[in-house]
Amino acid sequence: MQHRIVVLGAGYAGASAAGRLAKRLRREDVCVTLVNAEPDFVERVRMHQLATGQDLTHRSLAEMFAGTGVDVRVARVTAVDADRKAVTVTTADGPDELSYDTLVYALGSHWDDQGVPGAAEHAHEIAGRAGALRLREHLAALDAGRPVKVVGGGLTGLEAVTEIAEARPDLEVALVARAGLGDWLSDKGRRHLKAVLDRLGVTVYEHTAVTAVEAGRVVTADGTVLPSAATVWTTGFTVHPIARATALEVTDTGRIVVDATMRSVSHPDVYAVGDAAWAMGPGDKPLRMSCASGVPSAWQAADAIAARLTGGKDKDVPLRYFNQCISLGRREGLIQFVTADDRAVRHALTGRLAALYKELVCKGAAWGVAHPTLGLPTRRRPILQQAPTDAPADAAV
Questions:
Q1: How far is CA 190 from the centre of its chain?
Q2: Partners of 76 in the beta sheet?
Q3: Same domain, 90 and 200
Q4: Who's near 326: CB < 8 A, 6+ residues apart?
Q5: What residues are paired with 238 via a beta bridge?
Q6: pLDDT tens across 327-350, in order?
Q7: Are both 119 and 227 inside the same structural domain?
Q8: Is 249 found in the same domain as 199?
Q9: Do 94 and 241 belong together in one domain?
Q10: Looking at the record's lineage, which domain of life comes first (predicted)?
Q11: Longest CA–CA separation in the chain, Å
Q12: Which of 27, 204, 292, 343 would be a feasible disulfide site paired with 69, CB 3.0-4.6 Å?
């Protein structure tokens, strides 16, 4: 009887996990089902490009996983019963239930309006394709000279504001940041960031909190009203609410608590990867929501699952950071090198070379997902006749 592995979500983390499992395990021994609400893989790190009118490569999940042994199911996950080992989904034909022996939870995250009045009604988000396409249509309809406000000074906000300013130099584009501009970067990184924003004509409001979003304007904490024909909200992400409704142990933000192998600390047959996982990295700091964390966590989980099923040993390779890659339009970039626990060091790569570096990183990540069974030596091993399901996560099995 085949061991049933169900992977929920086909973003960078989920798709990477499914592909790596297909490389590690024999098809006759396991059934890998990949569930995703959309039929295509979405390059989430390029949503700011999509919003400014650029066309992205179309990647069908069915075509990507054809011949790999991974069964792609287009369905929306509506519930997970971790005690019964069952997932409820809604397909085009109606509700259905999938039973599993091992679950990989990779439903990811979406934008977070943080409860700011009017943000959900009046702001645009670029955390997914639907939101990016709505913003694309809205920006295209704006006349020259109209004001655009990007709220949020993190990586997403920086990439969005520079992309919009470069694509539409006729608009009055501004960044509204709660903290200082790039205050987590090195001195070199901050200088370059400021120079690029100045060159693109972006107005920056530092140490400014937005307390309300209204039609045609945003309101700041000190009562200042800033006109805005298009408000782009990039202040952070929140995870899918399904995990919080399960018996899984989660944090107060709804992320699934996992060990070093990405295995749930409460349900040993469940692994969580990507934004959905609360995993500790170097310095006893939680891994941040990012592609830089998501793909390595997927590899970690897939290798741990394969080891557990085949009688191998968990590698438990520590996850760490190397750099933060920031696109600043199509011609500029910033690669901030960091410590293992994601703190900026002096060194940074800037300019055109940094833009090329970031583009290679994006293409490499998409290529890895689009070619799920390439790039690794094929070492499909038979699983144990009775694969353990409740052994301690750190046990050698």
A1: 25
A2: 90
A3: no
A4: 155, 158, 159, 333, 334, 335, 336, 358
A5: 110
A6: 999 999 999 999 999 999 999 999
A7: yes
A8: no
A9: yes
A10: Bacteria
A11: 68
A12: 27
Which residues, 6 or more positions from 396, have their beta carbon under 8 angstroms from its beta carbon?
Answer: 313, 314
Q: Which residue, of 216, 233, 250, is where some domain finishes? A: 233
Only one residue has tokens 């929501």, namely: 289
CA distances from 279 to 163, 194, 252, 260, 304 (A): 32, 33, 14, 7, 15
Report how far residue 126's alpha carbon sits from residue 148's, in angstroms, rounded to the nearest whole number. 14
Asked whether residue 122 is assigned to any structural domain, the reply reads yes
333: left (phi over 0), alpha (psi -120 to 50) or beta: beta
pLDDT at 55 over 60: yes
Residue 185, domain extent: 113-233
227 and 126 assigned to the same domain: yes
Query: Positive or negative CA dihedral for 298, 304, 307, 312?
Result: positive
- The conformation of residue 243, written as its DSSP 8-state character, comes to G
Q: What pLDDT, in 10s, does the model give residues 221-243?
A: 999 999 999 999 999 999 989 99
Torsion angle of the four alpha carbons 174, 177, 180, 181, in this order, in degrees rounded to the nearest 10: -40
The answer to whether residues 204 and 294 belong to one domain is: no
Residue 330 lies in a domain: no
Task: Name which of 2, 11, 8 is nearest 73 in CA terms.
Answer: 8
3-state secondary structure of 260: coil
Q: Which residue has the tokens 């098809």?
A: 27
- Distance in Å from the first CA to the final CA of the chain: 20
- Residue-wise pLDDT for 75-112, tens only, equals 999 999 999 999 999 999 999 999 999 999 999 999 99
Q: How many CB atoms lie within 10 A of CB 319?
A: 18
Question: What are 326's strand-pairing partners?
Answer: 334
Same domain? For 48 and 84 the reply is yes
Q: What is the CATH number of the domain that holds 156?
A: 3.50.50.60
User: Are β-strands 210-214 and 217-220 bridged in parallel, bridged antiparallel, or unpaired?
Assistant: antiparallel
Domain count, the chain: 2
> By 3-state DSSP, what share of the chain in percent is helix, strand and coil, each rounded to 5?
30, 30, 40
